[in-house]
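Task: encode each sequence below as structure tokens.

Item 1
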Amino acid sequence: MVQRPYKRILLKLSGEALIGDGVYGISPAVIERIASEVKILHDAGVEVAVVIGGGNIFRGVAGAAKGMDRTSADYMGMLATVINSIALQDGFEKHGLFTRVMSGLEMPRVAEPFIRRRAIRHLEKGRIVVFAAGTGNPYFTTDTAAALRAVEINSDVILKATKVDGIYDSDPMLNPDAIRFDQLSYDECIMKKLKVMDTTSISLCSENEMPIVVFNLNVADNIVNAVLKQSVGTRIC
């Protein structure tokens, strides 16, 4: 059996990650790739929880910026994460992974309500748990939801999937000379305003000593390597 450095992880995915080569919506190919890598981790004995954003369908902050009431926009964003969570559940179950979607908003026909002890029990039984609808409250990002759920379920680490291979001192898409960090402290992330996660989520992780690994989702097997090899991305601790 493959040795594992982590017993339990929380994988944070952006909604945009599900778009793939498109401009909107959900790419079945991306779902398939994520599910296949999560299957490898599951087979290695790693307990996997997931938090997914909704930016591929609707982003609350963007809606508010265009004049929509922020609370209404955030609730719409939460519903978008539920759609993405159900898509992930379908992909995981096609790989033979028993999966539970747990929602911060009550919608019993499509998801279980989030109950901490029940979530932990699902993980202990080898089920994949997808946390939908963020924290269930407006004005909080899905990054904050990931930090909160990770602390609640006693995760060993948060894996933050992005479009680049770690954290840089400036945007590597715009600056070819940007410098990548191998490791950072929580305080450095906040003081340098690196914007890899919002301040609330970084502070919550800092207070609870929850490490974060930021890595590139678009590289094949990177989810597996981030867990089993710890050889990718930037570590915040």
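Item 2
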Amino acid sequence: MIRDTSAQDRVLPARPMRGRLIAGVSTVAAVALVAFAWPSLRQAFSTGASVSESRLSIAAVERGPFERDIAAEGKVVAAVSPTLYAPNAGAVTLQVHAGDSVKKGQVLAVIDSPDLRAKIAQERSNADAMQADVLRAQVDARQQRAVLQREWDNARIDHTSAENDLARQQKAFDAGAVAGMQVDHAKDTLEKARITLAQAQSGLGLKDDSLKFDVRAKQLAYERQGLLVKDLERQLADLQVRSPVDGQVGQLFVAERANVAKDAQLLSVIDLSALEVQVQVAESFARELAIGMPGDIGGNGRTWKGLVSAVSPEVVNNEVAARLRFDGETPGQLRQNQRLSVRVLLDRRDDVLTVRRGSFVEEAGGTRAYVLVDGIAEQRPVRLGARSLDKVEILQGLKVGDRVVIGGAEAFKGAPRVAISR
């Protein structure tokens, strides 16, 4: 036979009325609690993820002054640091050593150039020969003019004689002493004398001009040769390489008595009286830098006013080199390559809607941001404006008091709504 379960059954006592009441009240309370919390629960269930608030950086949107500046560390450099070059080929004799203090005009190096000295001697000899040619041309011109003057004088005398002879023949013809043929002959002689005199006078003028041109041409050639000699003498004087500024000898590029080619580097001179501060600026800010912008230079426990004096057009490693000069006298206690802090003010405005800058500026192209509302991070479209080192301008999409997730939003994985747990 198969045994049944009658031996295991037992009668339960009836539940008292109080227990039923407590169970009913608990059920009603649970239902009420669910009904009260349903909006929040529904909102939480509608989110795609849940992220701890401790993993996020949150900042509030504010309205107030907005400054855009560049802060960087710079180094002191010489504003004037000329490099001297060899004006001609030759052997170099250095007159100074690296680090020596020098004055403007002081001889720093001397170049011995035999080729240049020989060339100067040749050109001086050519100049002397051209000067002799000028003097000879002047003498020849006087001689030729004297010959032409004599011919003109003879023609003038012949013309006067012909006039007198015609006058005598005319009187004799009027008195009946001579025939008319003689009068006509005297007239012809006078006409020939007049033509000869006119030709002599014209020839004298033309020859005189020609002689003047010949002498002038030789004179100009001599002057041109003189200029060439002066230029060579200047080159010879430049073989004594002089300091263009008061300062200090920097680097020597050649050894003593070395033979150098023309335009070879010899040495550099540093003008320590004119110092500037060079900084490396990120390319994104460099395009807004302009010469003349004000800045602050700090160091040695002091702050000086400065002005942007130069911005390099070359970009190296995503940075641009810029220089600031001191607005006023250059501080005397500074040294080359000394490190100083630099701050350049790009823009300043009041009553601007801003939020602290964070990674959200670069994420999604700066077109979206997460705003915390009742424990939920909601993604909103935004439009950003100018950016500084610590703040970013809000043009559209946010208002004062909004709490924005400025860092850590990559954990949201682009979800439109994310629950934030504490």
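Check on item 2: Confidence is low (pLDDT under 50) at residues 40-47. The domain at 82-112+239-265 is CATH 2.40.50.100 (OB fold (Dihydrolipoamide Acetyltransferase, E2P)).
End of task.
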